[in-house]
Amino acid sequence: xxxxxxxxxxxxxxxxxxxxxxxxxxxxxxxxxxxxxxxxxxxxxxxxxxxxxxxxxxxxxxxxxxxxxxxxxxxxxxxxxxxxxxxxxxxxxxxxxxxxxxxxxxxxxxxxxxxxxxxxxxxxxxxxxxxxxxxxxxxxxxxxxxxxxx
Length: 150
What we know:
By secondary structure, the chain is an alpha+beta fold. The protein has helices at about 1-20, 30-35, 50-60, 65, 90-95, 105-115, and strands at about 85, 125, 135, 140.
């Protein structure tokens, strides 16, 4: 194998140089800027759901905010009789900015349908608002948040 790899190395190098660079994944630029971020001092407590949503968008009190694409806040009527709280957003939720839209969300929607519940009548959120993951190549593998992050 080695001689054939060496023989084709120059042609492969030229081919790679000719190809255009691909656009990085959406979270790439936030990862690059993470080192420059300085945690903000805690703000005063918000007193409305919209104020909480805005506060969560600016939140950088833990390292999760540096690596996530965006904050995934809850959605649904604030006066809902039922609130569903998941652990944390997954990869698809992080990219979409909405809770329960990935593979677990599909299972969740099926369970709601079987229970006869309308998702639009529920308030759906996660205990942790940023996706915690371990990068593996081009994939982001879910990691369980620790107590401080929760």
